[in-house]
């Protein structure tokens, strides 16, 4: 079967669609050919796949071929069985007949002969050529077609259809396609079953010695090709997958040595997408195929099917995996392959896959996740191609054109060198090329970074190329390193980079060393006496690559350093762009850095700066400081060249903020020098500088600073400086952020003096103005260096207090400042609980109680109200307040202080002075409850009077307005007005207890103590008014003189005076008349100032002994009235009408006035005018007449007069009637008879129908 391989390949290349045979019985094909072929390809077909499931196929290609065609007649039976896939899938029999006899005798037997083969699918098309107007011919055609259906159709399957040439029916073509699809489907199912059976038989014999993979391949691919012709691409792809798996299992069978391939011309160009690059007959070997070509052939077939299925993503995914796996296979056979064929093949394969998949990919046709993964694969292919391309360039001496970046170093240093059996030797007549390479090596200088940074370049090779190449030469042993380097003292300098020997120099071999055995193969005739130099290695590799690379464009990219850089840039951009559109955006940014290096090298600093900024942002975000230290100097150099002062300044700050171990001290000092130089220079466009990574800050350890609303203070902040030297800050300020409202902040400003930050830890004290209530955390640290404003928003946390290292940058959750909501910070209350003496100096105590707040430096302003003044003749005293009613523990708990935390204050009284109504509080009283005693005097101009009722408390009330200023800058104020009650020591009431027959009156004076202290009465006397005299001539002293008389608090005492009526003074002596009697009491007080009333304080210049013997005098006016025995007038209330009073009805109220005795005032006049006034409640009565007036009354005894007033009751019920008063007549001269009733009854008004509203 393997002998038919060439024929199979030819058939496969020429046959790409299904074949439909046409059996033209009645020579009708020329007539219907155009109509049949015009319906191709079939728009929609239903076929069965390998698992017998229906599949709808669109645009199914097919070809009509007559059975008399040579393509169908020239096949041998064995060929027809082997290549059954090219045989017709249906037979269309074209017949026509216009006579029944002709049908029975000629047409029917012939059709029976044609359709007698059961393995062929057929159906008959009866062509009616009769004209529609010819009824006889039309009827005959219908009869013949009916007979045809009876003979060749059955109930299970219709095998006949009729085509009218003159007037075709509309549903003919639909019926025709259904029948032909049924034939194709049945034929396909039958042939699939046949191939499956044959393949199963061969698979069962796979372990037998006679098994031939070529036979299996022809059957398997025949089945796959048949699926492909039927557009069943999924089944076709599955067959090729199974074929690849079977080949992988049989290709490396032990005991069978086969050629790998890959040594022919053009094999360096991958054939992953070209299955016809090499005929199968050229790669066949014995009973199988060469692995190098056949694996690529299988993948090419698979990729072609995937493209037909519109799956470019799967082509890229399979292709990348295939390149990686096949690269490992190439590495196993590298010794037999041309020099660097593996690298060249990978490059061509990757580029071919990239071009094919990108051209067949429709953006947006797949899910976003699949699309990103597709671009990721494209980026991987570009990156793989780029890596191999750099390796080839390095081998031929273009290493100086490759940027020694961390990414390139990581790729190339882990990529092994090619491993040919023998390293290529230098061709003859190449001395000029070697000399040119040596010049390139010598002139290749390491690029010095900005700021004079010099670092050992990163390696671009896994091991020293010089050693690797010479080791693989036939004349040198693997271990003779000294011989390779002998005579090259400047070897390290000539390499100039990563080829420096890391091992110490080996000692010279002794003279008696053993003779080496050359490792040259037997067919290597030349003998090399010395190792190859590096330039010779490059020249040898270049000439070997010329023999390997057959693709002109590929070699053109390696012909010069400029062409190499152009191709290198193209591959790098392709990888970066695809990575940016995929998940792996970081890979794209890293490759942007490689593009930036090329731009920087060629002077395109603008584009290089933009790309370097992206790379630096990635490295900084990921915390890759080692990588950032490699790239950031280049960015700074570009920014300085472009005069981007702001960017250059920021780059210098970022360099300073990197780990100290990445740069030398002098390099860091150079960074700081640049920062200071720019800060003090005039920048064209100054911008705020962010130094968050260089200057960090935090609050001091411990609890947060607690303030009250409105309190300023000083806030200490720990600032860490990353500058290597001291730096001077012209200003420094800090913004605090409220935890519950980030939009509002408070600003703390430092002093105007410059602040010097030393490297490491610094403590800075900032003045903090008054803040709103809330909890505050550190916000932004701002300041100024020269003309430059800077800001830092990085927070430090976690380092010990004595550490100078930078703390980790983390936003703190612990507040640095807590400002409490407005609350009571102090309380001012009176220290006395009872009334004080009026008109006497008294101590007023004010209790000053701080509430968890210091009153240090507080000033109390005192303003006394009307009737009260401060006694300037006395000092103000202050002492610690002790509440006698509570224990010491309770007192400490109430005021927020513990007993052991109370300051040691002397218990003695401290004297203070008052200036302009203000008192400065001493420091010892700032945190404890104290009482301030102020000497005051309540002034009352009048004299107390003896009454039966107690004196109103309002009369003795005085006020003291207090204003306490306290806090750091007296920003806190507390205002309170205290009411202090002053009173007389006694309340005096009088009562005549007895009237003697001789006119003597016994007057009892009751003294009620109004103070909460003990009073001692030492003397008392009564100065009588005119008309009264004392009896017995006792000079006004009481009859009961039991002095001293002690009166306790709230108790009573009585004095008894004996008086009698005396003569009244005449009008000439009126100026000496006393209208009131005055009671004089001399007393003393024994109380303390804490509860209330007490002994008046001593003045500064008052002798103490004199004050002790001095009594206080209390005076009270006592009104004595002479008895009135005969009234002058009588006023009577006359009865009201008997029918009662009603609301709204006028009523006459009458009063009668009668003179009881003759008038003594105007004896000459017969009549006297009497003033009257009616008093009535306006809510109950309306007065219709005059309320006030005069009436004439005779002066003679018994004269009478009636006063009538019209009144209108306003309310119903029991109300008080109007009252008549005589203002000019003393009440003692009026006798009411009968008295006015207390209440009278007023009835409701009478109901009136005129006010009724009908319902």
List the keywords:
single chain, 1255 residues, alpha+beta, 7-stranded mixed sheet, 6-stranded antiparallel sheet, 29 helices, elongated, transport, golgi apparatus
General description of the model:
It holds the Pfam family Foie-gras_1. Residues 17-316 form the TRAPPC10/Trs130 N-terminal domain. Residues 568-657 form the Trafficking protein particle complex subunit domain. With 1255 residues, the chain is α+β, with helices and mostly antiparallel strands. It is built from 29 helices and 54 strands. The strands form 14 sheets. Strands 10, 12, 15, 16, 19, 20 and 23 form a 7-stranded mixed β-sheet that branches. Strands 24, 26, 28, 29, 30 and 32 form a 6-stranded antiparallel β-sheet that branches. β15 (731-738) and β16 (741-749) form a beta hairpin. Residues 475-528, 797-810 and 886-906 have low confidence and may be disordered.
**Which structural category fits the helices and strands?**
alpha+beta
* Helix share, percent: 25-40%
Number of strands: 54
Strand content: 15-25%
* Distance separating the two termini: 124 Å
Radius of gyration: 64 Å
Oligomer type? single chain
- Specify the overall morphology: elongated
User: What's the tally of helices?
Assistant: 29
For the biggest sheet, the summary is: 7 strands, mixed
Task: List the uncertain runs.
Answer: 475-528, 797-810, 886-906
- Mean pLDDT across every amino acid position: 81
Biased composition (Polar residues): 512-526
Region (Disordered): 506-526
Domain TRAPPC10/Trs130 C-terminal: 1140-1224
Organism: Nepenthes gracilis
């Amino acid at each position: 079967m393997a002998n038919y391989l060439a024929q199979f390949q030819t058939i496969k290349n020429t046959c790409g669609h299904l074949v439909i045979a046409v059996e033209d019985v009645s020579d009708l094909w020329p007539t219907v050919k155009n109509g049949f072929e015009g319906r191709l390809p079939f728009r929609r077909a239903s076929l069965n796949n390998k698992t017998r499931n229906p599949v709808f196929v669109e645009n199914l290609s097919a070809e009509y071929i007559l059975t008399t065609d040579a393509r169908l007649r020239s096949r041998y039976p064995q060929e027809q069985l082997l290549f059954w896939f090219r045989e017709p899938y249906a037979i269309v029999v074209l017949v026509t007949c216009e006579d029944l006899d002709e049908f029975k005798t000629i047409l029917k037997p012939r059709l029976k002969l044609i359709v007698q083969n059961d393995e062929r699918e057929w159906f008959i098309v009866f062509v009616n050529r009769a004209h529609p107007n010819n009824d006889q011919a039309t009827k005959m055609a219908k009869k013949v077609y009916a007979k045809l259906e009876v003979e060749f159709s059955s109930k299970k399957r219709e095998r006949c259809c009729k085509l009218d040439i003159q007037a075709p029916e509309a549903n003919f073509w639909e019926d025709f396609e259904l029948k032909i699809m049924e034939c194709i489907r049945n034929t396909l199912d039958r042939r699939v079953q046949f191939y499956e059976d044959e393949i199963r038989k061969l698979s069962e014999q796979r372990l037998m010695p006679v098994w031939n993979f070529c036979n299996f391949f022809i059957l398997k691919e025949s089945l796959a090709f048949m699926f492909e012709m039927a557009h069943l691409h999924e089944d076709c792809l599955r067959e090729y997958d199974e074929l690849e798996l079977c080949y992988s299992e049989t290709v490396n069978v032990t005991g069978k040595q086969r050629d790998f391939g890959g040594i022919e011309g053009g094999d360096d160009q991958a054939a992953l997408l070209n299955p016809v690059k090499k005929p199968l007959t050229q790669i066949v070997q014995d009973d199988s195929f060469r692995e190098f070509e056949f694996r690529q052939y299988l993948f090419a077939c698979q990729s072609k099917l995937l493209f037909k299925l519109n799956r470019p993503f799967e082509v890229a995914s399979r292709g990348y995996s295939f390149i990686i796996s096949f690269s490992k296979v190439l590495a196993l056979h590298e010794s037999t392959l041309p020099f660097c064929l593996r690298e060249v093949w990978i490059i061509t394969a990757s580029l071919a896959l990239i071009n094919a998949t990108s051209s067949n990919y429709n953006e947006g046709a797949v899910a976003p996740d699949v699309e990103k993964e597709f671009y990721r694969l494209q980026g991987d292919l570009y990156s793989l191609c780029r890596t191999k391309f750099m390796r080839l360039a390095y081998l031929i001496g273009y290493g100086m054109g490759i940027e020694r970046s961390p990414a390139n170093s990581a790729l190339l240093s882990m990529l092994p060198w090619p491993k040919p059996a023998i390293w290529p030797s230098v061709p003859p007549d190449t001395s000029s090329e070697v000399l040119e390479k040596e010049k390139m090596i010598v002139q290749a200088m390491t690029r010095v970074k900005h700021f004079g940074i010099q670092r050992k370049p990163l390696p671009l090779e896994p091991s020293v190329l010089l050693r690797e190449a010479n080791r693989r030469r036939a004349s040198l042993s693997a271990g003779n390193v000294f011989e390779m380097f002998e005579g090259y003292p400047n070897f390290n300098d000539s390499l100039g980079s990563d080829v420096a020997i890391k091992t110490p120099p080996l000692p010279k071999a002794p003279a008696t060393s053993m003779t080496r055995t050359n490792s040259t193969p037997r067919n290597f005739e030349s003998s090399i006496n010395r190792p190859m130099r590096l330039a010779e290695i490059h020249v040898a590799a270049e000439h070997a690559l010329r023999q390997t690379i057959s693709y002109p464009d590929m070699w053109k990219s390696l012909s010069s350093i400029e062409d190499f850089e152009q191709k290198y840039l193209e591959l790098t951009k392709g990888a970066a762009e695809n990575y940016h559109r995929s998940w792996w955006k970081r890979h794209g940014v890293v490759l942007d850095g490689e593009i930036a290096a090329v731009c920087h090298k060629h002077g395109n600093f603008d584009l290089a700066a933009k790309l370097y900024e992206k790379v630096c942002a990635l490295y900084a975000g990921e915390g890759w400081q080692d990588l950032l230290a490699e790239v950031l100097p280049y960015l700074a150099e570009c920014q300085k060249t472009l005069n981007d002062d702001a960017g250059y300044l920021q780059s210098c700050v970022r360099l300073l903020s990197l780990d100290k171990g990445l740069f030398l001290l002098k390099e860091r000092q150079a960074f700081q020098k640049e920062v200071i130089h720019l800060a003090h220079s005039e920048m064209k466009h100054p911008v705020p500088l962010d130094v968050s990574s260089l200057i960090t800050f935090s609050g001091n350890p411990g609890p947060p600073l607690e303030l009250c609303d409105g309190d300023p203070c000083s806030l200490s902040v720990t600032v860490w400086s990353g500058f290597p030297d001291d730096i001077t800050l012209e200003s420094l300020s800090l913004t605090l952020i409220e935890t519950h409202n980030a939009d509002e902040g408070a600003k703390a400003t430092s002093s105007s003096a410059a602040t010097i930050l030393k490297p490491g830890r610094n403590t800075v004290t900032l003045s903090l103005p008054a803040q709103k209530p809330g909890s505050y955390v550190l916000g932004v640290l701002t300041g100024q260096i020269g003309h430059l404003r800077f800001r830092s928003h990085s927070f430090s946390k976690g380092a010990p207090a004595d550490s100078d290292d930078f703390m980790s940058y983390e936003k703190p959750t612990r507040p640095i400042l807590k400002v409490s909501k407005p609350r009571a910070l102090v309380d001012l209350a009176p220290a006395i609980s009872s009334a004080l003496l009026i008109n006497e100096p008294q101590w007023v105590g004010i209790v000053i109680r701080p509430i968890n707040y210091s009153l240090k430096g507080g000033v109390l302003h005192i303003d006394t109200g009307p009737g009260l003044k401060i006694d300037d003749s006395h000092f103000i005293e202050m002492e610690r307040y002790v509440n006698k009613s509570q224990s010491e523990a309770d007192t400490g708990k109430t005021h927020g202080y513990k007993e052991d935390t109370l300051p040691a204050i002397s218990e003695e009284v401290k004297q203070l002075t008052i200036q302009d109504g203000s008192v400065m509080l001493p420091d010892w009283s700032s945190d404890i409850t104290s009482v301030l005693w102020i000497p005051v005097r309540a002034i009352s101009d009048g004299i107390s009077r003896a009454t039966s009722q107690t004196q109103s408390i309002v009369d003795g009330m005085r006020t003291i307005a207090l204003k306490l200023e306290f806090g750091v800058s007296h920003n806190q104020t507390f205002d309170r007005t205290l009411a202090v009650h002053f009173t007389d020591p006694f309340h005096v009431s009088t009562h005549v207890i007895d009237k003697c027959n001789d006119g003597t009156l016994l007057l009892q004076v009751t003294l009620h103590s109004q103070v909460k202290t003990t009073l001692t009465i030492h003397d008392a006397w009564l100065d009588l008014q005119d008309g009264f005299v004392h009896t017995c001539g006792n000079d006004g002293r009481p009859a009961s003189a039991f002095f001293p008389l002690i009166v306790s608090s709230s108790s009573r005492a009585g004095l008894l005076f004996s008086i009698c009526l005396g003569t009244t003074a005449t009008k000439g002596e009126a100026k000496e008349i006393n209208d009131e009697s005055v009671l004089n009491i001399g007393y003393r007080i024994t109380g303390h100032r804490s509860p209330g009333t007490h002994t008046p304080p001593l003045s500064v210049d008052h002798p103490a002994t004199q004050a002790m013997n001095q009594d206080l005098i209390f005076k009270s006016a006592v009104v004595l009235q002479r008895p009135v025995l005969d009234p002058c007038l009588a006023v009577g209330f006359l009865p009201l009408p008997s029918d009662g009073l009603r609301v709204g009805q006028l009523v006459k109220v009458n009063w009668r006035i009668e003179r009881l005795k003759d008038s003594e005032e105007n004896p000459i006049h017969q009549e006297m005018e009497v003033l009257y006034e009616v008093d009535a409640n306006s809510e109950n009565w309306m007065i219709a007449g005059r309320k006030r007036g005069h009436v004439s009354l005779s002066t003679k005894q018994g004269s009478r007069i009636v006063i009538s007033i019209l009144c209108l009751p306003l309310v119903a019920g029991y109300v008080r009637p109007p009252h008549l008063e005589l203002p000019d007549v003393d009440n003692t001269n009026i006798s009411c008879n009968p008295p006015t009733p207390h209440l009278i009854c007023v009835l409701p008004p009478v109901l009136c129908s005129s006010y009724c509203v009908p319902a």
